[in-house]
Amino acid sequence: MNALFPHWTGHYSKQRRRIQFLFLGTFAVLPLFDLLRFDFANSRLLILRQEIGLDEWALVWLFLMFAMWVIGAMSVVFGRVYCAYACPQMVFTELAHDIDAVARRLSRPFDLKTRPRVARVISLSLIAAMSIVASLLLLAYFAPLPVVASRLAHLDVGPWIGLIGATFSLVAFLDFVFVREKFCQTACPYGLLQGVIEDGRSLHVKLDPELGKCIDCGACHRVCPMGIDIREGSFQIECTRCGSCVDACEEVLGRLKQPRRSVLAFDFGGFSLKRWDPKRVLVSVATFGFAASLLVAIILREGVTLRLSPVYMDEAATRASQGGPSAEGLVESRYLLRATNHTKAPVELKGRVEGLPASTQLAGLEAARLAPGEEKRFTLIVRIPRGDAASGPTPFSWVIEGGGTPRRFPASFFARTSGRPS
Ligand code: SF4
Ligand code: SF4
Questions:
Q1: pLDDT digit string (tens) for 49-104?
Q2: What is the dihedral of CA 157, 161, 167, 171, to 10 degrees?
Q3: Containing domain of residue 328, as a range?
Q4: 252 lines ligand 2 (CB under 6 A)
Q5: Is 331 helix (H, G, I), strand (E, B) or coil?
Q6: Which residue, of 293, 323, 345, is where some domain finishes?
Q7: Residues 143 and 231 occupy one common structural domain
């Protein structure tokens, strides 16, 4: 196994690859069970099977902030560990190296001259297949995977799914063949931020003279996927804490039967995980607090979102509404109600007003029903007999019932008595 897969050699490398597969599995499963998925067709974000409308921008924003916070908090404590253990770019890059190793093995029966070409063809074919799988995994976050797979199977992809899928696959293929770790070394914005996030107590690899003497074999430098020499300093922003250098050092010195096998070791600046570190406590408390707030916000969110705003009519429209034959001496104001039903059951809306004369008539919410997931706009009309309407603006409240606690919206009724037609 190790001879075939050089990236599976050593304690830290094996542990890292297992965790990578765990994250890759999680990445693949989340959208399948609607635990995390963007449903653009219905303008909603699915989190833990809860449907969050994109109009609920505060919750969507909170979720994105939380995701960024978790990665930042992890970096404060563990350095750039996300890159080595969870980032799809690194996971697929390491799989591409595994594919190269398999291709070299499969090309062995061929003669020395044709072997490199055969290995390249096998490697490119397998990487192409992996790029399509990676593209499907990503597409699943934006369209239900069973639908995409079934349409692909029937070659009924349509221009958009076909174009987006083909573009994703092509970009992934070029990335896995030509770019690989170079992106992490030079272009990844998260990696570049690392320098300002971590401090001396963040996880790092250090050359520890107490563990023994470095024999300058250079193995740690040769195996480093980021191309750095950790002996030149523990806090180089490229270091992802992957542990390959520790494994390499252990292997070399282990062969020489040193008293302690590796002179490189992971360290928290003297603050081991067992020691009380105020920074770690603070970060953990803030992360759990943030997660709890997000959970409470999702649980307590309104099943039906309602937004009410006045409709401003121009002079001609106002006159028509106040003096037209159907109005019969009534003055009226109009309001726009935007309602979205985020629940899985139909909802009926009812409305009343408070603070206006008893002779007030209402219209616009007769048989107002919202199907599950439906968004609708209603024009609400308040009519008051001209004799009962005070001149100028009259404050009042709209009370809308449906899908939970009745909601109250302050509004203003404006009677334009001076604009009455003769
Ligand atoms: S220095 Fe060591 S831990 Fe850091 S990226 Fe290179 S091999 Fe991984
Ligand atoms: S692998 Fe270990 S012994 Fe060899 S150069 Fe690196 S730190 Fe020194």
A1: 887 877 777 888 898 999 989 988 988 888 889 899 999 999 999 999 999 999 99
A2: -110
A3: 304-419
A4: yes
A5: strand
A6: 293
A7: yes
